[in-house]
Amino acid sequence: MKILILTGKFGMGHWSAAQSLQQYLQGSYPDVSAEVVDFPAYAMPKLSGVMYKLFNLMVTHGRPVFNTYYRITGKGRPDTRPLFEGMFLSRLEQLFCRERPDMVIATHPLCAQLVSRYKERAGKRGDGWKLPLITCVTDVSSHPEWINSNTDCYLVPSGEIRRNLSERGVDPRTVCVTGIPVREEFRHLSHHKEGGARELLIMGGGLGLLPKSTAFYDALSRIPHTHITIITGRNRRLCRRLRGRWENIHVEGYVSQVWDFMSRADLVVSKPGGITLFEAIYARVPILAWPPALQNERNNARWMTEQGIGWVAGSENCVEEIRDILLDRDRLSLAAYRMECIRRQLQAGNFDRMMKAVAGTDLLSRLNNA
């Protein structure tokens, strides 16, 4: 069985979810071949790099524009028609003719929209419309850009999103609460703190969006009996500036094995991306989120605080808040316990049963006969 996982690198969360799905499917089901395709790069190989750079600039320096767009489109209807639809659909059809997939999983809304439109057109021609489409939602959000009429199943992060999709007209029988996919290393992680100093992990995401003031890190270094790891992502300039300046602060650039650092941490300070939230849940390490600037991250942060698994800092310069939380063992323990409860609910079978259905013939049969 061949599964195509279509995604885009508009932020690394969509890509990370796609990679996690591929890892799980191929590791669990020998008869499944799962391939991840960066579809914008496939469709526009000469322009996608520029497009991704412009997106990174917008979320870094043009956040009001992004949030305005997100709010306006959030009031729209499902079945959004993407820009350059004709060109994208032509390239999508070429990809399907070449790969002949049995199923498609989309971890980016653009990809879900395009596959839904492809199925609509194929249905009018009488071919290809039965290709199952699974949409994996990678934020704690029910934004209409994720909702498309030719979607056969939705993988969503929470029961709240399942209810929201139902209110927007999606058949709740097609919505599975699976959490946001994370790598298998997180799903089987045991928290193995070895005692001694407290461990603080600070992450700036792929772009390394972290405080620039040296005074912030000076103050961090003075938190008693605390070892601090800072992951600067692809922000090489900040990595060079911070590395080696404080005895109790260890600085890393881009790392692939984030689970190693989370498994030792007492607290994570990070932006509230959807992937980061669920990685932290599986690691059972509470989160203090930087004040979220993007609307989708605000939605994630609201869910995080409602679940009692983390807190939102009052400002970027939040050393006192970090210190207070680190020194409050009861507060950390309660948040970690709530994370464990969520993790157990997710591991009770929803994700595994869904993936078995995706990889097996019973779902294909059910969808094709629907």
Structural write-up:
The protein has 370 residues and is an alpha/beta fold. 49% of the residues lie in helices and 14% in strands. It has 17 helices and twelve strands. A six-stranded parallel beta sheet has the order 2-1-3-4-5-6, with helices on both faces. A six-stranded parallel beta sheet has the order 9-8-7-10-11-12, with helices on both faces. The protein is globular. The relative contact order is 0.11. Residues 364-370 have low confidence and may be disordered.
How would you summarize what this structure contains?
By secondary structure, the protein is an alpha/beta fold.
Task: Name a few traits of the molecule.
single chain; 6-stranded parallel sheet; alpha/beta; 370 residues; disordered C terminus
Query: What would the principal axes of the Cα set say about the shape?
Result: globular
Percentage of helical residues? 40-55%
Largest sheet: 6 strands, parallel
Strand share of the residues?
5-15%
* Protein structure class: alpha/beta
Spatial extent as radius of gyration: 21 Å
What ranges have pLDDT less than 50 throughout 5 or more consecutive residues? 364-370
Number of helices: 17
Strand segment tally: 12
Q: What value does the average pLDDT take?
A: 88
The helix/strand series, from N terminus to C terminus, equals EHEHHHHEHEEHEHEHEHEHEHEHEHHHH
Task: Please state how the strands of the largest beta sheet are arranged side by side.
Answer: 2-1-3-4-5-6
